[in-house]
From TrEMBL:
PANTHER family: FMN REDUCTASE (NADPH) (PTHR43408). Keywords: Flavoprotein, FMN, Oxidoreductase. It comes from Streptomyces spinoverrucosus. It holds the Pfam family FMN_red. Residues 1-147 form the NADPH-dependent FMN reductase-like domain. The lineage of its organism: Bacteria, Bacillati, Actinomycetota, Actinomycetes, Kitasatosporales. GO terms for molecular function: oxidoreductase activity. This is Oxidoreductase. It comes from the Bacteria.
């Protein structure tokens, strides 16, 4: 299986990347998966060019292929103006809206203080619900004071376990066969009710 981390951190080193790495390590410890990291900082120019010319550059195209071909995603953004970063949103804007349907996603964010932790619920979760991805119940937010403090490790482990469970479950699931489904048109159902009455 393939696990892809999308990190929107801008600095080097980055707390956003560090959180993504810890989540990936915890997930890969539960399910056999190759981990690939997509650093959006390195794709910023190609993302902007994609908006103006409609075509992804070589690196951006490879990143999109990695994300859309993954069995599971970990997406991590720093908080900017009480939401995800513009770079993070722009990357997911250039991906086909149908490409993430049913894909297991773990959402995470970093910020300067705990007061921004609701960004996960009011910004990230709705974005991936719109893309019809399957977002794990536990989201992980790491404020500056969380590093080295109690609680962060437990949230990482719980979220990683949920993502690993979804990845393992979906990889073993057999797709529904449309021929096995018998759909009776609504008009026929109404006609049957009228004749029975």
């Amino acid at each position: 299986m393939k696990l892809v981390v999308v990190s929107a951190g801008l600095s080097v080193p980055s707390s956003t990347r560090l959180l993504g790495d810890r989540l990936a390590k915890a997930t890969a410890g539960r399910v056999a998966a190759d981990v690939e990291v997509v650093e959006l900082r390195e794709l910023a120019v190609e993302i902007a060019h994609n908006f103006t010319n409609g075509f992804p550059g070589r690196k951006l195209s490879a990143a999109i292929d990695a994300v859309t071909g993954a069995d599971g995603l970990i997406v991590v953004t720093p908080v900017f103006s009480a939401s995800y970063s513009g770079l993070f949103k722009s990357f997911f804007d250039v991906i086909d809206p149908e490409a993430l349907v049913g894909k297991p996603v773990l959402i995470a964010a970093t910020g300067g203080s705990a007061r921004h932790s609701l960004v996960l619920e009011h910004a990230l979760r709705p974005l991936f619900a719109y893309l019809r991805a399957v977002v794990v119940p536990t989201a992980v937010y790491a404020a500056s004071e969380d590093w080295g403090a109690e609680g962060l490790d437990g949230r990482i482990e719980r979220a990683a376990g949920e993502l690993a469970g979804l990845m393992a479950g979906l990889s073993g699931a057999k797709p529904a066969v449309e021929e096995d489904l018998h759909v009776v048109p609504f008009e026929e159902q109404l006609a049957a009710l009228r004749s029975a009455g």
